[in-house]
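Hello, quick one for you while I still have it in my head. My current little project is about how a certain protein chain folds up. You're getting the sequence in one-letter code plus the fold written as tokens. Would you mind checking whether the tokens look sensible for this chain? Here's the protein in full, and shout if anything looks odd to you:
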Amino acid sequence: MRELLSIVGIFAGAAILLFVGLMSSDQAPIRYYAQPIAQQNAAAAETERRGTRDAPIFVQVVSPEKSEYETANEDAERKEKTARERGMVKWTAVAAFAATIAAVIALVQAGFFYRQLNIMAKGVTDAEEVAKAAKASADATLASLEIEHAAQRPYIKMSHTPPGLRFSEGAAPDADWRLIVQISIKNGGHSPGTVSDVVLKATHKGKGLIPTRSVPDSRKKPLGFFIPAEENFFGFGFSIAAVDGRRLQNFGGVTLTGYVDYIDQFGGRWRSGYERLYNSAHDPQNNLVIPWESDGHYDRARKRTDPDPGIDWDWEPKPPPEKAA
């Protein structure tokens, strides 16, 4: 930048010096010669006597001869014309030089403008790179927080205790049987969680079995506050006709499906699924097995807009108060 400014200063200084030199150059004065007055009077008297007897007029064609005064005047006019032409040439040169200086200055300004554009473009590119880096850093931070949340949140799952499904005959031969299962709820995560709901359903040939005890959907209290590795149990029972109970006990065909809803310490709401099929020929210590084509096992986040969002959206469950030592 400094070198370009120095070049512009040199050209501008040279133009100024040339202009001053041309303006201060002295032009030789033009001298005109006049005929003396005595000679002018004699010539006038001679002219008055012409055409008289003493000075008759006669015409003689001769080559005109210029007097020394006329010659001197013509020389002066010629020198004046030459001086004017020389001045025009000088001013033309000055104008051309000034135009050259203007063109050089315009080129220098164009160079400055081009360099400024490059600097601005580089600044925009740098700003874009900074914005991209900031976005990448923010995305990485968000991903890190999500990973940390996933690693530290509770994972509360639903299972059952051995032997699984138990059949209880009615008091009378034709009385309904009861199907009984004990459900286990355990926190396998790294932080506490609040269980808000536990749901279990039994179906046979596509028909739902009637539960022996129903839990109202209008509860406003959590079912339990589970610290890591804590496990609690919930009992469920279903009624079935005696004839169907005997058939199921021998051949199977009952499917249990359910879920547990819970809330983590960050306010996130989750649902963990459960699905088992009764198999009478399986291990007597565990007659409930996972179906081969099961979609009932999951652990996913819940949303208020879900078809079945859960019952805990209008209340904020709090952990129980600590007991005094």
